């Protein structure tokens, strides 16, 4: 996992912790940085799930089902964490109509590393004030974003449909996040 990520004008500082589940990871056999040129297409925030497909969410650690199968009708990218939804309009909104990014039961909102899902969709979880874990193996899955929404890290769950399993790993998520930060930093510096 990546924590304490801070970007200043000249430095990027972070803490990096990973679970060494692959036998070659962390050895001299592993090549983390490849000599490839990433295109903007490969850095885009493409959805990994398909609308209208029945998915079961499973814990990556114990493979137990965390929900009953669900078909997501809206699969949408989340804006950056630094954006304020109340600033998305060209005219002032009334104070009663706060813009909400809480997904409904058939919605899922995603980024490269996490997704927002309606709290009622995941049944086999435990949570305290902030952290949510798998009810079966106590593997950390994410955080309680607000009273209706859970933020689940993509490398802690896998989505199963009839044909395949969709999951990510923490190392590729972190490299993808770095590429995204650098892409946005470069874009903002060229403005």
From TrEMBL:
InterPro entries: UBQ-conj_enz_E2-bd_prot. This is Uncharacterized protein. Pfam families: HECT_2 (PF09814). It comes from the Eukaryota. It comes from Anoplophora glabripennis.
């Amino acid at each position: 996992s990546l924590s304490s990520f801070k970007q200043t004008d000249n430095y990027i500082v972070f803490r990096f912790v990973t679970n060494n589940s692959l036998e070659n990871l962390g050895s001299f056999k592993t090549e983390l940085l490849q000599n490839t040129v990433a295109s903007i297409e490969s850095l885009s925030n493409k959805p990994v799930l398909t609308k209208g497909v029945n998915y079961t969410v499973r814990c990556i650690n114990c493979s137990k089902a965390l929900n009953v199968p669900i078909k997501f009708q809206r699969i949408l990218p989340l804006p950056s964490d630094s954006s304020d939804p109340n600033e998305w309009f060209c005219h002032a909104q009334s104070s009663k109509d706060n813009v909400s990014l809480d997904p409904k039961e058939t919605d899922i909102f995603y980024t490269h590393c996490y997704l927002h899902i309606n709290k009622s969709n995941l049944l086999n979880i435990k949570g305290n004030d902030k952290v949510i874990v798998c009810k079966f193996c106590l593997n950390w899955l994410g955080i309680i974003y607000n009273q209706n929404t859970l933020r689940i890290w993509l490398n802690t769950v896998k989505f199963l449909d009839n044909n395949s399993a969709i999951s990510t790993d923490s190392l590729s998520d972190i490299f993808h996040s770095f590429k995204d930060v650098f892409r946005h930093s470069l874009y903002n510096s060229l403005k």
